[in-house]
Design a protein that fits this description.
The protein is of the alpha/beta class. Among the domains are: 249 residues, Rossmann fold; 196 residues, 3-Layer(aba) Sandwich (Rossmann fold). Helix content is 46%, strand content 10%. Strands 1-8-2-7-6-3-5-4 form an eight-stranded mixed sheet. A six-stranded parallel sheet has the order 9-14-13-10-12-11. Helix 10 packs parallel to helix 12.
Length: 655
């Protein structure tokens, strides 16, 4: 060690370390300088490239413009005008496309029309109609059994021998075994009277008109024969929207109910012969079109539809009815009325002329009978049967007298304050609310259905009863389809005790265990029969019906018709109701007089123009025809606006 304490080795190491640190710092500075220079060069190159591209584009645009100018100088006058015309057409097409996109989708649907089919030029294969051996002679016990069941053969049509009624489903050997199993599974052991006679008739291949009381089992009378009719034909391939059996109904709820009944007997329809089975679906307005088309494309043999949505699908060529050989009109009298007659004429023209046609309803008339005959095969007459009607039939001298379902106790409350209509309406509402409170408090198991004409009053009444502690709900055409179906399903299950509804469920809807039906607004006598028929369903059903009657000068005949239906059903006729009917006959009650030019109007027979059109009846007192007259627009601010009468067209959205 040297003097002074310095170590030469340590000093050398420190110097080497310092030198290395200086060299590393210099290298880092050089690296940063190089990176900065590269970044600057990269930015300059990019800017240079962008500038070059912009110059090239400008040059290309100038060259293109120069080229167009040179071409235009060399184009002949005719070609120049053609080019200008092409540009104008292109501009117009673009403008029209923008307008179509701005317009609602429904407008495009309304512009489309159903194309008529020339059936003489169509090659059509034969199909099987008859599935039972024809009877050669009348069974001696058949007529006795008909009398016991209340069945009347009103018109034999083209049949010389009417097959006898059946007593069990097993007698129909043509029904698949899975149908009989599903019937047993659902607790359906024996056929109802209308089914006893209608099933062998339909399976014999003839057109049938079936008239029976509400809740008598008419749905299965046409659903069960449809199955062997379908199985005997080639299977519908997936993706083909061409049903075999078409059932037309007036309301959405009824179409959905028909499909639900079909599903009960088609659960086990997948067999070796038809691996996919037999499928049914509903088509109705207010539902999602995409989902309905998806169900149809699966290959559905049975379609229950409302007329409006069905025509939409046919006009847009989403489905075809050329394979339909089995056509059913449920609530047929309603489907053949003026409101639906045009739609049925359109649908009929899309279905094969040699189809089998069935009509089922609870009410019937001479006018409807003539229209129904026009839908059948040319030169053939349908067989008409009735159950629970007069012994002479449904089209006799007393055929205008309607018959309510047996087992219904009918009560009529007359509210007659002709000098003060608003006081009369207030009194009706007070009586209704008192009656509802009484039956709701008396028994917890009462299930009540109230029919009104105004949607607003339906909501008001349901809200008031709910606030009073009763589970009540309203249902009308102003609510969405999902809401209506959900409400109806929950009412069937008993989650609601009371349902206030308009005429959307006035026909065909089966609701079990309805104890009371209340008709707040009378409407026509046919509507009254169908509405109170929502109670006393089934073979031995019982129920009560209450109607609040008020005289209406545009339908003066209702008082007398209601007296007749009460007498025919063995019910008590109130003295006030008899008095009003007598005053109408004596001319002491005001009656609306329609103009002569409207009275003399004669409706053409849509399907029988070549037949005798004499003795045509037109119910000029009915409200639907009053809507078509000028008197309606003149009176609507006075009498009609005050009247809270029955809305016949509340279910028009179903179309």
């Amino acid at each position: 060690m040297l003097a002074g304490g310095h170590n030469p080795v340590q000093m050398a190491q420190d110097a080497a370390t310092s030198q290395m640190q200086m060299q590393m710092a210099q290298q880092q500075m050089l690296a940063q300088q190089m990176m900065s220079q590269q970044y600057q060069m990269t930015q300059q190159q990019q800017q240079t490239q962008l500038a070059n591209q912009w110059i090239q584009q400008q040059n290309s645009a100038q060259q293109a413009q120069q080229w167009l100018q040179d071409m235009q100088r060399n184009i002949p006058q005719s070609q120049e005008s053609a080019a200008a015309k092409w540009q104008d057409e292109r501009k117009n097409r673009w403008t029209q496309q923008e307008r179509r996109q701005e317009q609602p989708t429904a407008t495009a649907f309304e512009e489309q029309e159903v194309q008529k089919i020339d059936w003489s030029a169509k090659a059509r294969g034969a199909f099987q109609r008859c599935f039972l051996s024809p009877s050669t002679s009348e069974s001696p016990t058949a007529e006795n059994l008909r009398q016991q069941l209340g069945i009347c053969i009103e018109d034999k049509g083209d049949l010389h021998v009417i097959p006898g009624p059946i007593s069990s489903f097993d007698e129909l050997n043509c029904l698949p075994s899975y149908v009989l199993q599903d019937l047993q599974w659902n607790g359906i052991t024996n056929p109802l009277p209308i089914q006893c006679q209608a099933l062998p008739l339909v399976l014999s291949g003839v057109d049938v008109i079936g008239i029976a009381q509400t809740g008598s089992g008419k749905t299965l009378s046409y659903l069960l024969p449809a199955i062997p009719h379908i199985v005997a034909q080639p299977e519908i391939q997936r993706g083909s929207v061409s049903p075999i059996a078409l059932i037309v109904a007036p309301t959405r709820e009824l179409a959905v109910q028909i499909v639900e009944e079909a599903h009960k007997v088609l659960k086990k329809s997948q067999t070796k012969e038809r691996p996919r089975g037999v499928w049914a679906t509903a088509v109705y307005g207010g539902g999602k079109k995409g989902q309905q088309l998806k169900d149809l494309e699966y290959g559905c043999e049975i379609v229950a539809a409302t007329p409006g949505r069905l025509i939409d699908f046919v006009s847009q060529k989403n489905m075809t009815l050329e394979r339909v050989t089995y056509l059913v009109l449920d609530e047929a009298d309603r489907m053949l009325e003026e409101g639906f007659a045009g739609d049925m004429e359109t649908i009929s023209g899309q279905v094969r002329p040699e189809r089998q046609v069935l009509f089922f309803s609870a009410t019937w008339s001479h006018a409807v009978q003539k229209l129904a005959a026009g839908l059948c095969n040319p030169g053939s007459a349908p067989v008409r049967i009735s159950v629970g009607q007069d012994k002479e039939g449904s089209l006799t001298e007393n055929s205008h007298i309607r018959h309510a379902r047996d087992g219904i106790i009918q009560t009529v409350q007359v509210v007659d304050i002709p000098d003060d209509y608003e006081k009369q309406v207030a009194e009706k509402r007070r009586l209704l609310e008192d009656y509802l409170s009484g039956i709701l408090w008396n028994a917890a198991d009462h299930k009540i259905l109230v029919f009104v004409s105004q949607k607003q009053y339906a909501d008001e009444l349901a809200d008031k009863l709910w606030k009073d502690g009763f589970k009540a709900v309203a249902m009308h055409g102003g609510k969405s389809q999902e809401s209506r179906l959900n409400t109806l399903d929950r009412f069937r299950k008993g989650e609601f005790r009371l349902l206030v509804a308009t005429d959307v469920i006035g026909r065909g809807i089966d609701i079990p265990q309805v104890s009371h039906v209340i008709v707040f607004d009378m409407g026509s006598i046919d509507d009254y029969v169908h509405r109170i028929g929502r109670t006393a369903r089934g073979k031995d059903g019982h129920g009560k019906a209450m109607v609040y009657f008020e005289y209406y000068h545009k339908e003066p005949q209702i008082a007398g018709e209601l007296c007749q239906i009460l007498e025919a059903s063995g019910q008590v006729v109130p003295d006030d109701l008899r008095r009003i009917a007598r005053e109408v006959e004596e001319g002491k009650r005001p009656v609306f007089q329609y103009k002569q030019k409207w009275k003399s109007w004669d409706r053409k027979d849509r399907w029988n123009d070549n037949k005798d059109n004499d003795n045509k009846e037109r119910s000029w007192g009915s409200r639907e025809y009053y809507h078509q007259t000028r008197e309606h627009s003149r009176d609507q601010r006075t009498d009609w606006a005050k009247r809270t009468r029955h809305d016949r067209h509340d279910s028009s959205s179903d179309r």
